[in-house]
Amino acid sequence: MFIFAICMPVVAVIILGAVFGNKPAFNGAAYTFLEQSFGAVATIAICAGGVMGLPLVVSDYRGRRILIRFKVTPTSPALILAVQIAVYALYSIVSLILVYMTAAMFFGYQHHGSWLHFIGAYLLVMVSMFSIGLLVGGLAPNMKAASAAASLLYFPMLLFSGATLPYEVMPRALQKAADLLPLTQGIKMLKAASLDMPMESVILPITIMFVLAVICVGISLRLFKWE
């Protein structure tokens, strides 16, 4: 997690800043390429922790029979999952701070929108992505199954949602496919918040992320497997 949640986002910012500098995102744009990509890069840690880290930890606990021991205690599945969420949320917050500091100190990044809106969108993306991880970790019969499912979710979202390859440079057909990924909707929210775009334009992504979180958390708590 130190590599994927902490180092990888910072390296991505350094590469974007070194390659594109303060170049406009496109001809006539009022913001730079880095300013446009900031929200997307900030989701790398969320995706790593929520979609990859959480399922593997929970399934590992199940495989080592740690969960079955908890079953005979007053401990609930909600408490076990909440502890893991707190750990990976901390990774995500630290990553966001480091990404912002790196972009601002070395490449002159400026946040144009409301920080309140951005933090709200960031937390919603975090909850939504973590809910997917909880669902996979709560239902996977073993660590091998959890790893396979997490990989099938993690790598497409990391590569095609806009977190690494900018959404705007993708061919139109690939953009339509990327729109089916939950993280793509989250990145649209963060871009709107960081670039001071009308939040009304992202009502659909907000709704999708919220509904996804409610469904995944509900299923993971109800069908949680101890062994």
Strand content: under 5%
- Total beta strand runs: 0
Largest sheet: none
Round the mean pLDDT to the nearest integer and report it.
87
Structural class: mainly alpha
Determine the fraction of residues in helical runs and give it as a percent range.
over 70%
Radius of gyration, rounded? 18 Å
* Approximate shape: elongated
Which regions have little confidence, pLDDT < 50, spanning 5+ residues?
none
Number of helices: 10
Order of helices and strands: HHHHHHHHHH
Q: How many angstroms separate the termini?
A: 25 Å
Short description, anyone?
This protein has helices at residues 2-20, 33-41, 44-63, 66-71, 77-107, 115-139, 143-160, 172-178, 182-194, 203-222. The mean pLDDT is 87.
Structural notes for this entry:
With 227 residues, the chain is an all-alpha fold. Helix content is 74%, strand content 0%. The chain contains ten helices and no strands. It has helices at 2-20, 33-41, 44-63, 66-71, 77-107, 115-139, 143-160, 172-178, 182-194, 203-222. α3 (44-63) packs antiparallel against α5 and α6 (115-139) packs parallel to α10 (203-222). The longest helix has 31 residues, at 77-107. The radius of gyration is 18 Å and the shape is elongated. The mean pLDDT is 87.
Sum up the structure in keywords.
74% helix, 10 helices, mainly alpha, 227 residues
SSE layout and pairings?
Elements: H1 2-20, H2 33-41, H3 44-63, H4 66-71, H5 77-107, H6 115-139, H7 143-160, H8 172-178, H9 182-194, H10 203-222
Helix pairs in contact: 1-2, 1-3, 1-5, 2-9, 3-5, 3-6, 3-7, 6-9, 6-10, 9-10
